[in-house]
Amino acid sequence: MNVHAEGPPLWTPDELATATGGTLRGAPAVAINGVSIDSRTLAPGDAFFAIKGDNSDGHSYVAAATGRGAGLSIVASERVAELPADAPLLIVEDVLRALEHAGRTARERSGARIVAVTGSVGKTTTKEALLFALGADGPTHASAASYNNHWGVPLSLARLPRGARYGVFELGMNHPGEITPLTAMVRPHIAIITTIEPVHIAQFSGIEAIADAKAEIFSGIEPGGAAVLNRDNPQFARLRAAAKAAGIAKIVGFGEHKGSQARLLSVALQPDGSTATADILGQTISFKVGLPGRHIVQNALAVLAAAKLAGADLCLAALALASLGPPPGRGVRTPLAVKGGQALLIDESYNANPASMRAALDVLGRIPVEGRGRRIAVLGDMLELGEGGETMHRDLAGAVGSSADLVFCAGPLMHALWDALPPNRRGACAPDAAALLPLVADALRAGDVLVVKGSNGSRMGPLARALAERFRANSVPAEG
Asked: pTM of the entire structure?
């Protein structure tokens, strides 16, 4: 994903061979302008890395990649005999290791200022906001979607154009020790930790352990680099200490706390966005954000601080945030054609935890409804919360009570919330999202606004997509 990306080819076959230590066979394309691990989305001339994953093996798709015009397929030496004889190949010992080597080489040759983002919540939206903000100042590359793991990060690095002025990379983790090798590859000049919350806490001894795992990002920061940390989060002091221990002298806090160097001075929250004024490292600036929610404004402070630290024009960065839109599953709004008029679907189905659930409910509560319309929360289980999971679900009752008129619950954990709701707010409760779908569909009426949210494993994404398809705004809903 690039903004204003132009210039020489991304790779030549010889460069990839040198970077990976591989051997070329056949007639590869002269210039490689893309890198892919998915033959279905591969563009002609791309390099196809045939990675073996948990559910599929890329070597099974080399023929398809070649048919789609792959300029080169990077394959394991032990699999060459089963591949098409006419396929242009780069033969390596291990394809994933080769991708990592390519990523490191791209990083080493780049003169871009690099920003890395991690945190329990808000990584992808913050990464997208950085793409807008830095892209207003110069050619900017950012990792696509949520490519933040052991294959997503090197893939994103391997796609880093030579001429990029800025690079933005998202780093994720489910267990301790996962961020250390990722930040060693990315080597950021600036590291942002959006917040620390009880996400994946089942894999950790407590919230402090999550903070320590996120703090691994500091181990890869370039000399003279900076850490941008949430000053309003209870784990700020722990993160600041970890940054200092890693030798980072420039530590910037963001938030409403009076000690923040990127400090929110005022904010007006609207249903479809926000306006704010902030002091960003001594410069007062007013800006608009094209996404709703206080949490979005909070992370915009980190984005603007990072932009200034990276040497970008702060005014251009702030102006660009007005055009920010939601990534898939993170607040995309779709009108639904229901009997008598329209309803509005807000798809927040890309994962959930107590903090992001409350943020989504807060946004729902600020959206005006018309006529007999209601604010409806359609919620699936929040997973990987450990022994406290049932309590964390029950504790959402207060946030629901101030935001939603009607609640639909899917999953065994959400039953704890259902039990805590007053009868007049109960829509329906079902064992899973598939069983909940027809109950939500039957309940919709004109003027309703509904948010759909849950962990990926709770399958709320398919529910949201099914609602969007069933009530497409250009269709005529059935009477009855």
From this structure: 0.88
